[in-house]
Amino acid sequence: MKGSFTPDSNVLKTSNPYLSFKMTLTGDGYFQSAEEALSATKKVSRSERIDIVAGSARKGQSYLFWKGDQLFQLPVTYWTETDTWVNSPSYPDGSPHFDKAIIPRCLECHASYFDWLPPPVNRYRKTSLVLGIFCEKCHGPGREHVARHRLKATLPAGTSEAIVNPALLARDRQIDICGLCHSGNGTPIQPALSFLPGDSLDDFIDIPFAGPEDAVDVHGSQVQLLRRSKCFQSTTTLTCSTCHDVHKPQVDAAAFSPRCLSCHQPRQCGQYAKMGKSIAGNCIDCHMPLQESRVLFSNTNGKKLMPKVRNHQIGIYAGEKVH
Ligand code: HEC
Ligand code: HEC
Ligand code: HEC
Ligand code: HEC
Ligand code: HEC
Ligand code: HEC
Q1: 199, 268, 291, 300: which has the fewest C-beta neighbours closer than 10 Å?
Q2: Ligand showing the shortest atom-to-Cα distance for residue 135
Q3: Are 220 and 182 in contact (CB under 8 A)?
Q4: Are 110 and 91 spatial neighbours (Cβ–Cβ below 8 Å)?
Q5: Is residue 300 a contact partner of residue 86, using CB atoms and an 8 Å limit?
Q6: How would you write the pLDDT of the chain (323 residues) with one tens digit per residue?
Q7: Is 271 in the pocket of ligand 4 (CB under 6 A)?
Q8: Which residues line ligand 1 (CB under 6 A)?
Q9: How far apart are CA 281 and CA 109, in angstroms?
Q10: Using a 6 Å cutoff on CB, does residue 309 contact ligand 5?
Q11: Which of 34, 41, 117, 90 shows the shortest CA–CA distance to 219?
Protein backbone atom coordinates (compact mmCIF):
# COMPACT_ATOMS: atom_id res chain seq x y z
CA MET A 1 0.00 0.00 0.00
CA LYS A 2 1.76 3.14 -1.22
CA GLY A 3 -0.23 6.07 0.22
CA SER A 4 0.46 7.60 3.63
CA PHE A 5 -1.69 6.90 6.68
CA THR A 6 0.25 9.21 9.01
CA PRO A 7 -1.50 12.36 10.34
CA ASP A 8 -1.23 15.44 8.06
CA SER A 9 -0.46 13.49 4.89
CA ASN A 10 -3.51 11.23 5.30
CA VAL A 11 -6.13 13.84 4.35
CA LEU A 12 -7.52 14.58 0.88
CA LYS A 13 -9.22 17.96 0.49
CA THR A 14 -11.82 18.37 -2.24
CA SER A 15 -13.21 21.32 -4.20
CA ASN A 16 -16.05 21.29 -1.65
CA PRO A 17 -14.70 23.09 1.47
CA TYR A 18 -17.08 21.10 3.70
CA LEU A 19 -15.94 17.68 2.45
CA SER A 20 -12.66 15.90 3.03
CA PHE A 21 -11.44 12.31 3.13
CA LYS A 22 -9.20 10.73 5.71
CA MET A 23 -7.12 7.53 5.48
CA THR A 24 -6.51 5.74 8.77
CA LEU A 25 -5.00 2.55 10.15
CA THR A 26 -6.78 0.88 13.05
CA GLY A 27 -6.64 -2.53 14.67
CA ASP A 28 -9.31 -3.64 12.14
CA GLY A 29 -7.35 -2.61 9.07
CA TYR A 30 -6.89 0.36 6.70
CA PHE A 31 -9.90 2.65 6.26
CA GLN A 32 -11.06 5.51 4.04
CA SER A 33 -13.56 7.93 5.61
CA ALA A 34 -15.55 10.78 4.09
CA GLU A 35 -16.31 13.63 6.48
CA GLU A 36 -18.81 16.27 5.44
CA ALA A 37 -19.87 19.26 7.57
CA LEU A 38 -23.54 19.96 6.86
CA SER A 39 -23.66 22.92 9.30
CA ALA A 40 -21.57 24.32 12.19
CA THR A 41 -22.77 21.52 14.45
CA LYS A 42 -23.90 18.75 12.11
CA LYS A 43 -21.43 16.37 10.46
CA VAL A 44 -21.89 13.17 8.49
CA SER A 45 -19.24 10.63 7.91
CA ARG A 46 -18.91 7.26 6.25
CA SER A 47 -16.04 4.86 6.70
CA GLU A 48 -15.16 1.76 4.66
CA ARG A 49 -12.28 -0.67 4.95
CA ILE A 50 -9.71 -1.16 2.18
CA ASP A 51 -10.25 -4.83 1.35
CA ILE A 52 -8.49 -5.14 -2.03
CA VAL A 53 -5.67 -3.16 -3.69
CA ALA A 54 -5.78 -2.75 -7.50
CA GLY A 55 -2.52 -1.75 -9.19
CA SER A 56 1.22 -2.04 -8.55
CA ALA A 57 1.48 1.78 -8.31
CA ARG A 58 3.40 2.20 -11.54
CA LYS A 59 0.82 4.97 -12.13
CA GLY A 60 -1.30 4.57 -9.02
CA GLN A 61 -3.39 2.30 -6.82
CA SER A 62 -7.15 2.13 -6.43
CA TYR A 63 -8.86 0.40 -3.54
CA LEU A 64 -11.95 -1.77 -3.33
CA PHE A 65 -14.28 -2.71 -0.48
CA TRP A 66 -16.88 -5.39 0.19
CA LYS A 67 -20.45 -4.62 1.18
CA GLY A 68 -21.77 -8.10 1.87
CA ASP A 69 -20.77 -9.99 -1.28
CA GLN A 70 -20.84 -6.88 -3.49
CA LEU A 71 -17.57 -5.21 -4.52
CA PHE A 72 -17.21 -1.40 -4.89
CA GLN A 73 -14.45 1.14 -5.57
CA LEU A 74 -13.36 3.42 -2.71
CA PRO A 75 -13.42 7.21 -3.26
CA VAL A 76 -9.68 7.86 -2.84
CA THR A 77 -6.80 6.63 -5.05
CA TYR A 78 -3.03 6.88 -4.61
CA TRP A 79 -1.28 8.80 -7.44
CA THR A 80 2.35 7.89 -8.01
CA GLU A 81 3.43 10.94 -10.02
CA THR A 82 2.57 13.34 -7.17
CA ASP A 83 2.97 10.80 -4.34
CA THR A 84 -0.37 11.95 -2.91
CA TRP A 85 -3.94 10.83 -2.41
CA VAL A 86 -6.32 11.90 -5.19
CA ASN A 87 -9.99 11.58 -5.98
CA SER A 88 -10.56 8.18 -7.64
CA PRO A 89 -10.80 8.36 -11.43
CA SER A 90 -14.46 8.26 -12.50
CA TYR A 91 -15.74 9.85 -9.26
CA PRO A 92 -16.78 13.55 -9.39
CA ASP A 93 -14.79 16.01 -7.27
CA GLY A 94 -16.51 17.46 -4.20
CA SER A 95 -19.15 14.87 -3.31
CA PRO A 96 -18.72 11.64 -1.34
CA HIS A 97 -19.18 8.51 -3.49
CA PHE A 98 -18.79 4.88 -2.54
CA ASP A 99 -21.05 3.51 -5.25
CA LYS A 100 -18.96 2.45 -8.26
CA ALA A 101 -19.68 -1.24 -8.80
CA ILE A 102 -16.70 -3.43 -9.70
CA ILE A 103 -17.90 -5.41 -12.71
CA PRO A 104 -16.43 -8.74 -13.91
CA ARG A 105 -14.54 -7.09 -16.80
CA CYS A 106 -12.62 -4.99 -14.26
CA LEU A 107 -11.53 -8.12 -12.39
CA GLU A 108 -10.88 -10.01 -15.62
CA CYS A 109 -8.04 -7.53 -16.29
CA HIS A 110 -6.84 -7.06 -12.71
CA ALA A 111 -7.23 -10.50 -11.13
CA SER A 112 -6.68 -14.09 -12.18
CA TYR A 113 -9.87 -15.82 -11.04
CA PHE A 114 -13.28 -15.22 -9.40
CA ASP A 115 -16.72 -16.85 -9.20
CA TRP A 116 -19.52 -14.40 -9.80
CA LEU A 117 -23.02 -14.71 -8.35
CA PRO A 118 -26.47 -13.79 -9.73
CA PRO A 119 -27.14 -10.01 -10.20
CA PRO A 120 -26.43 -7.27 -9.26
CA VAL A 121 -23.33 -7.38 -11.47
CA ASN A 122 -20.76 -6.85 -8.70
CA ARG A 123 -21.58 -9.91 -6.54
CA TYR A 124 -18.78 -12.46 -6.09
CA ARG A 125 -17.97 -15.45 -3.94
CA LYS A 126 -15.45 -13.69 -1.72
CA THR A 127 -13.18 -16.64 -1.09
CA SER A 128 -12.91 -17.38 -4.83
CA LEU A 129 -10.87 -14.29 -5.74
CA VAL A 130 -7.32 -14.98 -6.94
CA LEU A 131 -5.61 -11.58 -6.99
CA GLY A 132 -2.78 -10.56 -9.32
CA ILE A 133 -1.94 -11.81 -12.83
CA PHE A 134 -0.80 -15.42 -12.51
CA CYS A 135 1.05 -17.75 -14.85
CA GLU A 136 -2.17 -19.37 -16.10
CA LYS A 137 -3.53 -16.08 -17.50
CA CYS A 138 -0.90 -16.32 -20.26
CA HIS A 139 0.00 -20.01 -20.20
CA GLY A 140 -3.48 -21.51 -19.82
CA PRO A 141 -4.51 -24.21 -17.37
CA GLY A 142 -1.43 -25.83 -15.79
CA ARG A 143 -2.76 -28.78 -13.80
CA GLU A 144 -1.99 -31.40 -16.43
CA HIS A 145 1.46 -29.90 -17.05
CA VAL A 146 2.32 -30.13 -13.36
CA ALA A 147 0.98 -33.66 -13.08
CA ARG A 148 3.08 -34.80 -16.04
CA HIS A 149 6.24 -33.23 -14.68
CA ARG A 150 5.74 -34.90 -11.33
CA LEU A 151 5.77 -38.17 -13.25
CA LYS A 152 8.40 -37.08 -15.72
CA ALA A 153 10.70 -40.04 -15.21
CA THR A 154 7.95 -42.36 -16.42
CA LEU A 155 6.91 -40.30 -19.49
CA PRO A 156 8.27 -41.14 -22.95
CA ALA A 157 10.57 -38.48 -24.48
CA GLY A 158 8.75 -36.00 -26.72
CA THR A 159 5.51 -36.10 -24.73
CA SER A 160 3.69 -32.79 -25.03
CA GLU A 161 4.16 -30.28 -22.21
CA ALA A 162 0.37 -29.86 -21.96
CA ILE A 163 0.69 -26.09 -21.40
CA VAL A 164 0.71 -23.09 -23.74
CA ASN A 165 4.10 -21.62 -24.64
CA PRO A 166 3.05 -18.31 -26.20
CA ALA A 167 6.29 -18.14 -28.20
CA LEU A 168 5.06 -21.11 -30.28
CA LEU A 169 1.69 -19.56 -31.21
CA ALA A 170 0.99 -17.60 -34.40
CA ARG A 171 1.67 -13.87 -33.93
CA ASP A 172 -2.01 -12.88 -33.74
CA ARG A 173 -2.72 -15.54 -31.09
CA GLN A 174 0.30 -14.37 -29.04
CA ILE A 175 -0.91 -10.80 -29.12
CA ASP A 176 -4.48 -11.87 -28.30
CA ILE A 177 -3.21 -13.11 -24.91
CA CYS A 178 -2.03 -9.60 -24.10
CA GLY A 179 -5.02 -8.06 -25.86
CA LEU A 180 -7.44 -9.55 -23.34
CA CYS A 181 -6.22 -6.81 -20.97
CA HIS A 182 -4.20 -4.41 -23.14
CA SER A 183 -6.65 -3.45 -25.88
CA GLY A 184 -9.21 -1.49 -23.90
CA ASN A 185 -12.59 -2.46 -22.48
CA GLY A 186 -14.26 -3.56 -25.71
CA THR A 187 -17.70 -5.18 -25.55
CA PRO A 188 -17.71 -8.70 -24.10
CA ILE A 189 -19.40 -11.33 -26.33
CA GLN A 190 -18.75 -14.23 -23.92
CA PRO A 191 -18.80 -14.28 -20.11
CA ALA A 192 -15.65 -13.06 -18.32
CA LEU A 193 -12.85 -15.65 -17.94
CA SER A 194 -13.99 -17.66 -21.01
CA PHE A 195 -10.98 -16.67 -23.13
CA LEU A 196 -8.01 -19.02 -22.84
CA PRO A 197 -4.49 -18.50 -24.26
CA GLY A 198 -4.44 -19.84 -27.82
CA ASP A 199 -8.03 -18.73 -28.52
CA SER A 200 -8.92 -15.99 -30.98
CA LEU A 201 -9.85 -12.92 -28.91
CA ASP A 202 -12.35 -11.76 -31.56
CA ASP A 203 -14.67 -14.59 -30.50
CA PHE A 204 -14.78 -13.29 -26.91
CA ILE A 205 -14.58 -9.51 -26.95
CA ASP A 206 -15.63 -7.07 -29.61
CA ILE A 207 -12.75 -4.61 -29.86
CA PRO A 208 -13.44 -1.80 -32.30
CA PHE A 209 -11.04 -1.64 -35.23
CA ALA A 210 -8.86 1.47 -35.01
CA GLY A 211 -8.13 3.08 -38.37
CA PRO A 212 -4.96 5.15 -38.88
CA GLU A 213 -6.74 8.42 -38.05
CA ASP A 214 -8.91 7.20 -35.16
CA ALA A 215 -8.01 8.47 -31.70
CA VAL A 216 -6.75 5.63 -29.50
CA ASP A 217 -5.86 6.47 -25.92
CA VAL A 218 -2.34 5.65 -24.74
CA HIS A 219 -3.72 4.00 -21.59
CA GLY A 220 -4.48 0.33 -21.84
CA SER A 221 -4.53 0.15 -25.68
CA GLN A 222 -0.99 -0.97 -26.39
CA VAL A 223 -2.21 -3.62 -28.84
CA GLN A 224 -4.11 -1.27 -31.18
CA LEU A 225 -1.29 1.25 -31.08
CA LEU A 226 1.46 -1.24 -31.83
CA ARG A 227 -0.62 -2.70 -34.68
CA ARG A 228 -0.75 0.74 -36.31
CA SER A 229 3.07 1.05 -36.34
CA LYS A 230 4.97 0.62 -39.60
CA CYS A 231 7.39 -1.59 -37.67
CA PHE A 232 4.54 -4.00 -36.95
CA GLN A 233 2.93 -3.82 -40.37
CA SER A 234 6.20 -4.28 -42.27
CA THR A 235 7.29 -7.36 -40.32
CA THR A 236 5.77 -10.73 -39.40
CA THR A 237 7.75 -11.27 -36.20
CA LEU A 238 7.30 -8.14 -34.08
CA THR A 239 5.23 -8.97 -30.96
CA CYS A 240 5.06 -7.61 -27.43
CA SER A 241 7.78 -10.12 -26.50
CA THR A 242 10.21 -8.53 -28.97
CA CYS A 243 10.63 -5.87 -26.29
CA HIS A 244 9.07 -7.16 -23.08
CA ASP A 245 9.92 -9.95 -20.72
CA VAL A 246 6.70 -10.03 -18.73
CA HIS A 247 8.28 -12.22 -16.07
CA LYS A 248 10.30 -9.19 -14.84
CA PRO A 249 9.46 -5.54 -14.02
CA GLN A 250 9.61 -3.44 -17.20
CA VAL A 251 10.65 -0.05 -15.96
CA ASP A 252 13.83 1.09 -17.73
CA ALA A 253 12.97 2.84 -21.01
CA ALA A 254 16.62 3.20 -22.10
CA ALA A 255 17.09 -0.58 -21.88
CA PHE A 256 14.68 -0.99 -24.81
CA SER A 257 16.76 0.80 -27.48
CA PRO A 258 18.74 -2.37 -28.26
CA ARG A 259 15.41 -3.96 -29.29
CA CYS A 260 14.97 -1.29 -31.95
CA LEU A 261 18.52 -1.91 -33.09
CA SER A 262 17.74 -5.57 -33.72
CA CYS A 263 15.97 -4.28 -36.87
CA HIS A 264 17.30 -0.74 -37.39
CA GLN A 265 20.66 1.03 -37.70
CA PRO A 266 21.15 4.36 -35.89
CA ARG A 267 22.18 5.77 -39.30
CA GLN A 268 18.67 5.15 -40.64
CA CYS A 269 17.39 7.81 -38.25
CA GLY A 270 17.06 11.31 -39.65
CA GLN A 271 18.61 12.69 -36.44
CA TYR A 272 21.80 10.66 -36.77
CA ALA A 273 23.53 13.25 -38.97
CA LYS A 274 22.90 15.95 -36.35
CA MET A 275 23.23 14.03 -33.10
CA GLY A 276 25.53 11.15 -33.98
CA LYS A 277 25.84 8.08 -31.82
CA SER A 278 24.25 9.84 -28.84
CA ILE A 279 20.83 8.81 -30.15
CA ALA A 280 21.66 5.14 -29.71
CA GLY A 281 20.29 4.77 -26.18
CA ASN A 282 17.35 7.11 -26.69
CA CYS A 283 15.19 5.70 -29.48
CA ILE A 284 12.24 5.36 -27.05
CA ASP A 285 12.19 9.02 -25.92
CA CYS A 286 11.51 10.24 -29.45
CA HIS A 287 9.71 7.35 -31.14
CA MET A 288 7.50 6.07 -28.27
CA PRO A 289 6.96 9.30 -26.33
CA LEU A 290 5.27 9.56 -22.95
CA GLN A 291 1.85 11.12 -23.49
CA GLU A 292 -1.01 12.04 -21.19
CA SER A 293 -3.98 9.73 -21.08
CA ARG A 294 -7.30 11.38 -21.87
CA VAL A 295 -9.50 8.53 -20.68
CA LEU A 296 -7.84 7.89 -17.33
CA PHE A 297 -7.80 11.03 -15.19
CA SER A 298 -8.62 12.25 -11.73
CA ASN A 299 -10.58 15.40 -10.88
CA THR A 300 -8.95 16.42 -7.62
CA ASN A 301 -9.58 19.57 -5.64
CA GLY A 302 -10.37 21.57 -8.78
CA LYS A 303 -7.50 20.14 -10.88
CA LYS A 304 -7.46 17.52 -13.64
CA LEU A 305 -4.61 15.01 -13.30
CA MET A 306 -3.67 12.76 -16.23
CA PRO A 307 -1.00 10.05 -16.01
CA LYS A 308 1.65 9.80 -18.73
CA VAL A 309 1.86 6.52 -20.62
CA ARG A 310 4.21 5.30 -23.39
CA ASN A 311 2.60 5.64 -26.78
CA HIS A 312 2.97 2.17 -28.33
CA GLN A 313 2.51 3.46 -31.86
CA ILE A 314 6.19 3.52 -32.84
CA GLY A 315 6.49 6.48 -35.19
CA ILE A 316 7.73 9.97 -35.90
CA TYR A 317 6.50 12.60 -33.48
CA ALA A 318 7.09 16.34 -33.72
CA GLY A 319 9.17 18.06 -31.08
CA GLU A 320 10.21 15.08 -28.94
CA LYS A 321 13.51 15.53 -27.09
CA VAL A 322 15.89 13.19 -25.33
CA HIS A 323 15.14 13.26 -21.60
C1 HEC B 1 -5.23 -10.74 -17.26
C2 HEC B 1 -4.87 -9.43 -17.73
C3 HEC B 1 -3.51 -9.24 -18.35
C4 HEC B 1 -2.91 -10.00 -19.33
C5 HEC B 1 -3.43 -11.26 -19.99
C6 HEC B 1 -1.68 -9.33 -19.65
N7 HEC B 1 -1.53 -8.21 -18.87
FE8 HEC B 1 0.03 -6.94 -18.85
N9 HEC B 1 -0.76 -5.94 -17.28
C10 HEC B 1 -2.04 -6.14 -16.79
C11 HEC B 1 -2.30 -5.17 -15.75
C12 HEC B 1 -3.59 -5.04 -14.95
C13 HEC B 1 -1.13 -4.39 -15.62
C14 HEC B 1 -0.91 -3.25 -14.67
C15 HEC B 1 -0.28 -3.82 -13.46
C16 HEC B 1 -0.07 -2.77 -12.44
O17 HEC B 1 0.85 -1.97 -12.56
O18 HEC B 1 -0.82 -2.77 -11.49
C19 HEC B 1 -0.18 -4.92 -16.60
C20 HEC B 1 1.11 -4.42 -16.78
C21 HEC B 1 1.93 -4.77 -17.84
C22 HEC B 1 3.22 -4.19 -18.10
C23 HEC B 1 3.94 -3.16 -17.25
C24 HEC B 1 4.83 -3.98 -16.31
C25 HEC B 1 5.59 -3.18 -15.29
O26 HEC B 1 6.68 -3.66 -14.91
O27 HEC B 1 5.11 -2.14 -14.82
C28 HEC B 1 3.68 -4.74 -19.27
C29 HEC B 1 4.98 -4.45 -19.98
C30 HEC B 1 2.68 -5.70 -19.70
N31 HEC B 1 1.64 -5.70 -18.81
C32 HEC B 1 2.77 -6.46 -20.85
C33 HEC B 1 1.94 -7.54 -21.13
C34 HEC B 1 2.16 -8.47 -22.21
C35 HEC B 1 3.29 -8.37 -23.21
C36 HEC B 1 1.17 -9.40 -22.15
C37 HEC B 1 0.95 -10.60 -23.06
C38 HEC B 1 2.06 -11.55 -23.13
C39 HEC B 1 0.33 -9.06 -21.02
N40 HEC B 1 0.84 -7.94 -20.43
C41 HEC B 1 -0.79 -9.77 -20.62
C42 HEC B 1 -2.92 -7.10 -17.19
C43 HEC B 1 -2.64 -8.11 -18.08
C1 HEC C 1 -9.57 -4.00 -20.32
C2 HEC C 1 -8.77 -4.28 -19.16
C3 HEC C 1 -8.91 -3.36 -17.96
C4 HEC C 1 -10.06 -3.02 -17.29
C5 HEC C 1 -11.50 -3.38 -17.64
C6 HEC C 1 -9.63 -2.22 -16.17
N7 HEC C 1 -8.28 -2.06 -16.19
FE8 HEC C 1 -7.15 -1.02 -14.85
N9 HEC C 1 -5.51 -1.28 -16.02
C10 HEC C 1 -5.44 -2.12 -17.09
C11 HEC C 1 -4.09 -2.11 -17.62
C12 HEC C 1 -3.60 -2.90 -18.82
C13 HEC C 1 -3.34 -1.23 -16.81
C14 HEC C 1 -1.86 -0.90 -16.96
C15 HEC C 1 -1.58 0.52 -17.35
C16 HEC C 1 -1.75 0.92 -18.80
O17 HEC C 1 -1.82 0.13 -19.72
O18 HEC C 1 -1.83 2.12 -19.03
C19 HEC C 1 -4.28 -0.72 -15.80
C20 HEC C 1 -3.97 0.17 -14.80
C21 HEC C 1 -4.76 0.40 -13.68
C22 HEC C 1 -4.32 1.10 -12.50
C23 HEC C 1 -2.96 1.73 -12.31
C24 HEC C 1 -2.02 0.65 -11.89
C25 HEC C 1 -0.60 1.00 -12.14
O26 HEC C 1 -0.05 0.48 -13.13
O27 HEC C 1 -0.02 1.79 -11.41
C28 HEC C 1 -5.36 1.06 -11.59
C29 HEC C 1 -5.37 1.64 -10.19
C30 HEC C 1 -6.46 0.38 -12.25
N31 HEC C 1 -6.06 0.00 -13.52
C32 HEC C 1 -7.69 0.13 -11.68
C33 HEC C 1 -8.79 -0.39 -12.37
C34 HEC C 1 -10.11 -0.56 -11.80
C35 HEC C 1 -10.50 -0.25 -10.36
C36 HEC C 1 -10.90 -1.05 -12.80
C37 HEC C 1 -12.39 -1.40 -12.78
C38 HEC C 1 -13.26 -0.38 -12.25
C39 HEC C 1 -10.07 -1.20 -13.98
N40 HEC C 1 -8.79 -0.80 -13.69
C41 HEC C 1 -10.49 -1.70 -15.20
C42 HEC C 1 -6.46 -2.87 -17.62
C43 HEC C 1 -7.79 -2.75 -17.26
C1 HEC D 1 1.57 -11.72 -18.79
C2 HEC D 1 1.74 -13.01 -19.44
C3 HEC D 1 2.59 -14.06 -18.77
C4 HEC D 1 2.57 -14.43 -17.46
C5 HEC D 1 1.68 -13.90 -16.35
C6 HEC D 1 3.54 -15.48 -17.34
N7 HEC D 1 4.14 -15.71 -18.55
FE8 HEC D 1 5.57 -17.12 -18.93
N9 HEC D 1 5.68 -16.50 -20.88
C10 HEC D 1 4.88 -15.52 -21.42
C11 HEC D 1 5.27 -15.32 -22.80
C12 HEC D 1 4.65 -14.32 -23.76
C13 HEC D 1 6.32 -16.23 -23.06
C14 HEC D 1 7.09 -16.41 -24.36
C15 HEC D 1 8.16 -15.38 -24.43
C16 HEC D 1 8.91 -15.45 -25.74
O17 HEC D 1 8.34 -15.13 -26.77
O18 HEC D 1 10.04 -15.85 -25.70
C19 HEC D 1 6.55 -16.97 -21.82
C20 HEC D 1 7.52 -17.95 -21.64
C21 HEC D 1 7.66 -18.70 -20.49
C22 HEC D 1 8.59 -19.80 -20.32
C23 HEC D 1 9.58 -20.23 -21.34
C24 HEC D 1 9.15 -21.36 -22.15
C25 HEC D 1 10.30 -21.85 -23.01
O26 HEC D 1 10.12 -22.82 -23.72
O27 HEC D 1 11.37 -21.26 -22.99
C28 HEC D 1 8.40 -20.30 -19.07
C29 HEC D 1 9.14 -21.48 -18.45
C30 HEC D 1 7.38 -19.51 -18.43
N31 HEC D 1 6.96 -18.54 -19.32
C32 HEC D 1 6.93 -19.71 -17.16
C33 HEC D 1 6.05 -18.87 -16.48
C34 HEC D 1 5.68 -19.01 -15.09
C35 HEC D 1 6.15 -20.12 -14.16
C36 HEC D 1 4.83 -17.99 -14.80
C37 HEC D 1 4.20 -17.62 -13.46
C38 HEC D 1 5.14 -17.43 -12.38
C39 HEC D 1 4.66 -17.22 -16.03
N40 HEC D 1 5.41 -17.78 -17.02
C41 HEC D 1 3.83 -16.13 -16.15
C42 HEC D 1 3.88 -14.81 -20.80
C43 HEC D 1 3.58 -14.88 -19.45
C1 HEC E 1 11.02 -6.50 -35.86
C2 HEC E 1 11.75 -5.41 -36.51
C3 HEC E 1 11.53 -4.01 -35.98
C4 HEC E 1 11.66 -3.56 -34.68
C5 HEC E 1 11.98 -4.37 -33.44
C6 HEC E 1 11.48 -2.13 -34.73
N7 HEC E 1 11.22 -1.73 -36.02
FE8 HEC E 1 10.94 0.16 -36.64
N9 HEC E 1 10.47 -0.49 -38.50
C10 HEC E 1 10.66 -1.78 -38.95
C11 HEC E 1 10.33 -1.85 -40.36
C12 HEC E 1 10.45 -3.08 -41.24
C13 HEC E 1 9.91 -0.54 -40.72
C14 HEC E 1 9.43 -0.06 -42.08
C15 HEC E 1 10.60 0.42 -42.86
C16 HEC E 1 10.19 0.99 -44.17
O17 HEC E 1 9.01 1.01 -44.50
O18 HEC E 1 11.11 1.45 -44.84
C19 HEC E 1 10.02 0.28 -39.54
C20 HEC E 1 9.72 1.64 -39.49
C21 HEC E 1 10.12 2.49 -38.47
C22 HEC E 1 9.99 3.94 -38.45
C23 HEC E 1 9.35 4.80 -39.52
C24 HEC E 1 7.95 5.01 -39.03
C25 HEC E 1 7.05 5.82 -39.91
O26 HEC E 1 5.87 5.94 -39.51
O27 HEC E 1 7.46 6.29 -40.97
C28 HEC E 1 10.52 4.38 -37.27
C29 HEC E 1 10.62 5.81 -36.79
C30 HEC E 1 10.96 3.21 -36.54
N31 HEC E 1 10.70 2.09 -37.30
C32 HEC E 1 11.56 3.26 -35.31
C33 HEC E 1 11.70 2.15 -34.47
C34 HEC E 1 12.06 2.23 -33.08
C35 HEC E 1 12.41 3.50 -32.35
C36 HEC E 1 12.03 0.97 -32.60
C37 HEC E 1 12.21 0.53 -31.16
C38 HEC E 1 11.31 1.17 -30.22
C39 HEC E 1 11.67 0.08 -33.70
N40 HEC E 1 11.48 0.84 -34.81
C41 HEC E 1 11.57 -1.30 -33.63
C42 HEC E 1 11.07 -2.86 -38.17
C43 HEC E 1 11.25 -2.85 -36.80
C1 HEC F 1 9.33 -1.76 -29.52
C2 HEC F 1 9.35 -2.09 -28.15
C3 HEC F 1 8.02 -2.39 -27.46
C4 HEC F 1 7.04 -3.25 -27.88
C5 HEC F 1 7.00 -4.08 -29.14
C6 HEC F 1 6.03 -3.23 -26.86
N7 HEC F 1 6.40 -2.39 -25.85
FE8 HEC F 1 5.37 -2.03 -24.12
N9 HEC F 1 6.78 -0.70 -23.52
C10 HEC F 1 7.93 -0.39 -24.23
C11 HEC F 1 8.64 0.63 -23.52
C12 HEC F 1 9.94 1.26 -23.98
C13 HEC F 1 7.91 0.92 -22.35
C14 HEC F 1 8.22 1.95 -21.28
C15 HEC F 1 9.16 1.42 -20.24
C16 HEC F 1 9.42 2.52 -19.24
O17 HEC F 1 9.09 3.67 -19.50
O18 HEC F 1 9.94 2.21 -18.19
C19 HEC F 1 6.74 0.06 -22.38
C20 HEC F 1 5.77 0.05 -21.40
C21 HEC F 1 4.65 -0.77 -21.42
C22 HEC F 1 3.62 -0.79 -20.41
C23 HEC F 1 3.56 0.04 -19.17
C24 HEC F 1 2.66 1.25 -19.39
C25 HEC F 1 3.39 2.51 -19.42
O26 HEC F 1 3.41 3.16 -20.47
O27 HEC F 1 3.96 2.93 -18.40
C28 HEC F 1 2.69 -1.71 -20.80
C29 HEC F 1 1.41 -2.04 -20.07
C30 HEC F 1 3.15 -2.26 -22.05
N31 HEC F 1 4.34 -1.68 -22.40
C32 HEC F 1 2.47 -3.25 -22.76
C33 HEC F 1 2.83 -3.70 -24.02
C34 HEC F 1 2.05 -4.63 -24.80
C35 HEC F 1 0.75 -5.26 -24.36
C36 HEC F 1 2.70 -4.83 -25.98
C37 HEC F 1 2.26 -5.61 -27.18
C38 HEC F 1 0.98 -5.20 -27.75
C39 HEC F 1 3.91 -4.02 -25.92
N40 HEC F 1 3.94 -3.35 -24.72
C41 HEC F 1 4.87 -3.96 -26.93
C42 HEC F 1 8.34 -0.95 -25.42
C43 HEC F 1 7.61 -1.85 -26.17
C1 HEC G 1 15.99 13.27 -30.66
C2 HEC G 1 14.91 12.43 -31.13
C3 HEC G 1 15.26 11.15 -31.83
C4 HEC G 1 16.01 10.09 -31.34
C5 HEC G 1 16.77 10.01 -30.04
C6 HEC G 1 15.91 9.05 -32.33
N7 HEC G 1 15.15 9.45 -33.38
FE8 HEC G 1 14.75 8.40 -35.07
N9 HEC G 1 13.83 10.01 -35.90
C10 HEC G 1 13.61 11.21 -35.24
C11 HEC G 1 12.92 12.11 -36.15
C12 HEC G 1 12.47 13.53 -35.85
C13 HEC G 1 12.77 11.40 -37.37
C14 HEC G 1 12.14 11.92 -38.68
C15 HEC G 1 13.21 12.32 -39.65
C16 HEC G 1 13.85 13.63 -39.23
O17 HEC G 1 13.12 14.63 -39.18
O18 HEC G 1 15.02 13.65 -38.90
C19 HEC G 1 13.34 10.09 -37.17
C20 HEC G 1 13.35 9.08 -38.12
C21 HEC G 1 13.66 7.75 -37.85
C22 HEC G 1 13.44 6.64 -38.74
C23 HEC G 1 12.73 6.70 -40.07
C24 HEC G 1 13.66 7.06 -41.16
C25 HEC G 1 12.92 7.10 -42.50
O26 HEC G 1 13.46 7.70 -43.38
O27 HEC G 1 11.81 6.57 -42.60
C28 HEC G 1 13.91 5.51 -38.12
C29 HEC G 1 13.90 4.10 -38.67
C30 HEC G 1 14.43 5.92 -36.86
N31 HEC G 1 14.27 7.29 -36.72
C32 HEC G 1 14.99 5.06 -35.93
C33 HEC G 1 15.57 5.49 -34.75
C34 HEC G 1 16.29 4.60 -33.86
C35 HEC G 1 16.48 3.13 -34.09
C36 HEC G 1 16.72 5.35 -32.82
C37 HEC G 1 17.59 4.91 -31.65
C38 HEC G 1 18.87 4.39 -32.08
C39 HEC G 1 16.27 6.72 -33.05
N40 HEC G 1 15.58 6.75 -34.23
C41 HEC G 1 16.49 7.79 -32.19
C42 HEC G 1 13.95 11.53 -33.94
C43 HEC G 1 14.75 10.75 -33.13
Answers
A1: 268
A2: 3
A3: yes
A4: no
A5: yes
A6: 899 999 989 999 999 999 999 999 999 999 999 999 988 899 999 999 999 999 999 999 999 999 999 999 999 999 999 999 999 998 999 999 999 999 999 999 999 999 999 999 999 999 999 999 999 999 999 999 998 888 866 677 777 888 999 999 999 999 999 999 999 999 999 999 999 999 999 999 999 888 888 899 999 999 999 999 999 999 999 999 999 999 999 989 989 999 999 999 999 999 999 988 889 889 999 999 999 999 999 999 999 999 999 999 999 998 776 65
A7: no
A8: 55-56, 58, 109-110, 133, 137-138, 166, 177-178, 180-182, 240, 244, 246, 249-251
A9: 32
A10: yes
A11: 90
Ligand nearest to the Cα of 161, by number: 3
Q: Which of 286, 288, 320, 321 to mutate to test the pocket of ligand 6 (most atoms within 8 A of CB)?
A: 286
Nearest-angstrom CA–CA distance, 282 and 115: 45
Q: Whose CA is nearest to atom 28 of ligand 2?
A: 55
